[in-house]
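Following the same procedure, backbone shapes were mapped to integers, as reproduced here:
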Amino acid sequence: MSTSTILRETHYQKHKFAESQPFQVALAKGHVTTAAYAAFLKQMLHVHEAVETPLRAALADRPAWGPMFTRNRWRVERINGDLACIQIAGYSDPPGPSVLKLRQRIAEVEASPHYLLGAFYVLEGSTNGSRHIVRNLSLYIGLQADGGLGYLDPYGSEQPESWAEFKSAVDGLELDEAQLKMLVTAAGEM
């Protein structure tokens, strides 16, 4: 069974639970204010920094992982760009409890590259439903993919191909049992 299939099947219920949370439902429908959307972006900025900074460092020792990041998959600059478009500074909100817990967990596993990849896998996978969210947010709060919604729609019409490339690259990694377990654990905790 491929790594992506293991991840999907292992965490399907958690995925459904996350999608059913009140803010996620409102966001998907576009029924949030610009201020609420900006607060979401600020927290996601903290999340991406917590995952991306050590993951970028880990890539130096893992050239086989390079193909997973051939598209600009890094989101920190994109989120800052969105916040600038809606004229809200990125760091005025401190990290929330979930972000602090994520940072603590990354420290506990000593920034395990496989843990970071599992967390990143979930963040990358979240772009799959985002085109729908972008359409609704455009209608209700007037933002556009190139003007405040770039984080949610990083690949535009190339989203399916981008996700397929990423999954294929993850599936192509040779992981031992402990590495796979760490990746699956991270995805579940994310």
About this structure: The two ends are 22 Å apart (CA to CA).
